[in-house]
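In full, the data.
>
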Amino acid sequence: MNEKQLVISLNQGDESAFQSLFDLYSSRLYLYCFRFLKSKDLSDEIVQGVFIKIWEQRANVNPEFNFSAFIFKVAKNLLVDFLRKMSREEEAKMELQLKTQLYQSLPEDEMIYSELKKLIEDAVHKLPEKRQRIFRMSRFEGLSHEEIARQLGLSKNTVKVSIFKSLCFLREYLASHDKIKVSYLLLLFLMVRK
């Protein structure tokens, strides 16, 4: 099949067409992302995000348009969003360090920390069991995607998709708990790789 036929099949939910497009573009997208991020794991995550977005929007992908230009535009948008988020996280991290130094011994801070810790645990507890285990291994135990995949007998891509979906759920869950004034710190904790 040529690229246009693959996109037409993708529109209809054909997983083999999706796999063919993944095989065709994943390496090129990875190199494109790596040029900016200089990180294998982060580049892999962006590529995974691109293909998740393509799959979720498969019915809307226009087979008449240049798919190559389209998929690289999706990658560019995700990269820009990611780099902006990283910049905001660095600022939040510096602010957190400053606040920690200034207010380290206040009992009120210990209470907030306790609430944050409980909220994290509640959110993670709501994930499906398998996804919860993968997320804990990644964010709490600091294991890489490859280590998790090896230990659980899964593909690295399955681990990446699981973590991506977990983060999406946790963002939504945490956004609904605005009673805690410093919930942005919690988001920082969840997004920064260990």
